[in-house]
Design brief:
The protein is built from 22 helices and seven strands. It has 619 residues and is of the alpha+beta class. Among the domains are: 1-103, Alpha Horseshoe (Serine Threonine Protein Phosphatase 5, Tetratricopeptide repeat); 470-618, Histidine kinase-like ATPase, C-terminal domain (Heat Shock Protein 90). A hairpin with a 2-residue loop joins strand 4 (537-545) and strand 5. It is flat and about 125 Å long. It comes from Chitinophaga cymbidii. InterPro entries: HATPase_C_sf, HATPase_dom, His_kinase_dom, HisK_dim/P_dom, HisK_dim/P_sf, TPR-like_helical_dom_sf.
């Protein structure tokens, strides 16, 4: 016996053995009946229906709402297998309402996708969509995703023909199989296996798809999942009929045998009618068994419809009776309360006016005193909060300034001073030539100049950070400022044979602090000249757009890699760009960013890493 079938039968046997011990009028007994109905659902429909009715009747008698909701879902599933969709829908709706009252998320998810499946079978996917989406949303938040897996499988079934949802249905099918495999749910693995076969057929793999279905049908029969074997043979019959294969008769007979074994008689109408017509052409005797099956199906359908109607009417009448009792009790209670209040009010009315006047006067005095005290306390607290916030703000500002300054001194002064020391030590060599001495002297002078320039930048920045600094912008002609900036660098520009293009309108005015802005302009041009290859072009542009001033400085050359660009203005990683490429601007760009932001602007950098670099600020 296969392990799955053995385990399934063992669970059913254990539940049956515990039924007498639980008592026939207990909530545990109702839960056991509903669980047996659910276990029998894919194996033996008549047994599932019988346990569902028993669980429903007992839960109604005990007023056990969880048991009623579970029984409603089982009855709805039974009537779905019987193609009695209207009655199934009524039970699903009743189950959903009770789950919502209980706040049972797993039950709500199951009821929602069951109603969505009902509309799908009615070919109303427009109505099925909101229910399936709600079920997907609730199911994704369940603590135990095993309750979500059937929802995912049915989501695939509803929307597998919707070309706009190919990605979502593929994901849902894969997720359902992953969950089923994790919980060793053989029934769900078989169910989703049918959809995988459908996916193979969609790709044109007819023979492998049919082989998969035959394997799944055989496995379902061995595991005792009779309905799944009926489903598999129905799908094989559909493929064989569509592609005009010779095995249609075999599949329909197999489907009919399985359905008769499990009591899924309503599913036999079409195959039984087809087989009856087929064998009627051969002989009446050969067709007689199928005629008997058709008659039995009709009788069984009437019996199931009558029993379902009785169950629903019994539940409806009991619910109406309970509502009437609750309403009558509420009315009686309301009358008693009203009479008691009227009597008490008459006795207390005079006392209320006498005492009320005294209390009102006392409350006015107390309220005035409390209000004055509260206002004083609130004012003191507000002053203290403002003082504390201001001190915290100052401490944070000073701490940030200290961190920036230490980082700058640690990175930007160490390298040039080290070079100067190393170069100075070369003078101690006795074999040094005059030409080498002049070259070393020139190098020391250049590095000392750079260090001095760096020191001046730090001093300007420190001055801007000191308490009491106030930003007072004034109007200046942008072109005049840039003409002033380029003069100190004119010799370097000529030495490197660079072409400097100023594309700035003569009447373009900028409102800023001159020293801060010229510091930014000077350092951006200095970097552009420093990193431009000989004979290349530097472009400086300025323009107004949407009441903001934009200035960009672009130079040709190797550019800045995408890895370094995020750290160009970051003092916490000062020198990273310099260490990796030998071309970093260090503190100057950090101070430039600080000055631009103090003037209410933003500075950015972009580069392709190969041919150009552009620094742009906006004020």
């Amino acid at each position: 016996m296969p392990y799955t079938l053995f385990a399934q039968k063992q669970v059913i046997r254990q539940l049956k053995e515990t039924l007498p011990a639980q008592g026939t009028d207990s909530l545990q007994y109702a839960d056991a009946l509903n669980q047996l109905s659910l276990l029998y659902l894919p194996q033996q429909l008549d047994s599932s229906f019988r346990y569902a009715r028993a669980g429903h009747a007992l839960s109604l008698r005990l007023r056990y709402h969880k048991g009623i909701a579970d029984a409603n879902m089982n009855l709805g599933a039974c009537f779905t297998f019987q193609h009695n969709n209207k009655l199934a829908y009524r039970f699903y709706r009743e189950g959903l309402q009770r789950y919502q009252l209980l706040g049972d998320s797993a039950g709500i998810c199951k009821a929602l996708y069951s109603i969505g499946m009902y509309y799908h079978f009615q070919q109303r996917n427009d109505l099925a969509l909101p229910y399936m989406n709600d079920a997907m949303g609730i199911g994704s938040r369940l603590l135990h995703d095993s309750a979500w897996a059937p929802m995912l499988a049915n989501y695939y079934m509803v929307f597998e023909s919707d070309s706009t949802r190919l990605d979502s249905i593929q994901w849902a099918l894969g997720k359902a199989r992953e969950i089923a495999g994790r919980y060793h749910d053989k029934r769900l693995l078989t169910y989703t296996g049918f959809f995988l076969a459908n996916e193979r057929l969609r790709k044109g793999e007819l023979k492998p798809a049919m082989q998969d279905l035959l394997r799944l049908a055989s496995g379902a029969e061995e595991d005792g999942f009779v309905y799944l074997s009926v489903y598999a043979y129905a799908q094989l019959d559909l493929y064989a009929s569509y592609y005009h294969l010779p095995d249609t008769l075999l599949y329909r007979r197999k489907m009919m045998e399985a359905a008769m074994e499990g009591g899924y008689k309503q599913l036999l109408i079409r195959p039984a009618a087809w087989l009856y017509k087929y064998y009627r052409k051969q002989s009446a005797a050969a067709a007689a068994p199928y005629a008997d099956v058709l008659c039995e199906i009709v009788e069984h359908q009437e019996d199931m419809r009558r029993q379902g109607g009785e169950d629903y009417m019994e539940e409806f009448l009991q619910e109406q009776e309970r509502k009437a009792q609750r309403l009558s009790s509420a009315l009686q209670q309301q009358n008693l309360i009203r009479e008691s209040l009227e009597s008490r009010n008459r006795n207390m009315l005079v006392a209320f006016f006498v005492v009320g006047g005294l209390l009102l006067a006392g409350l006015v005095v107390v309220n005035y005193l409390l209000l004055r005290s509260t206002r004083r306390s609130a004012k003191r607290h507000a002053e203290l909060n403002r003082s504390v916030n201001e001190q915290n703000k100052n401490l944070k500002h000073h701490d940030d300034f200290k961190n920036k300054l230490l980082s700058i001194l640690a990175h930007d002064f160490r390298l040039p001073l080290g070079h100067i020391i190393n170069a100075s030590q070369l003078f101690a060599r006795e074999d040094i030539r005059n030409e080498e001495m002049r070259e070393i002297s020139s190098s020391i002078a250049s590095m000392a100049t750079e260090t001095l320039h760096l020191f001046e930048n730090v001093l300007r920045w420190v001055k801007s950070q000191l308490a009491g600094f106030e930003y007072v912008p004034k109007p200046y002609l942008l072109l005049d400022l840039w003409m002033e900036v380029q003069e100190p660098l004119a010799e370097d520009i000529r030495d490197k044979k660079l072409e400097l293009a100023l594309n700035i309108p003569a009447d373009l005015v900028v409102h800023a602090d001159k020293e801060m802005l010229q510091f930014v302009n000077r350092n951006l041009l200095h970097n552009a000249v420093k990193f431009s290859p000989r004979g290349s072009r530097i472009m400086i542009e300025g323009y107004h757009e949407k009441e903001r001033l934009f200035v960009s400085v672009t130079n040709e050359g190797g550019g800045i890699s995408a890895v370094d660009i995020p750290y160009v203005f970051d003092y916490k990683i000062v020198g990273r760009y310099a260490r990796e490429t030998g071309r970093g601007a260090g503190i100057a760009l950090i101070i430039c960013k600080d000055f631009v932001e103090r003037m209410g602007g933003v500075i950015t950098v972009r580069s392709d890493g190969k041919n150009f670099t552009t620094f742009e600020y906006m004020l």
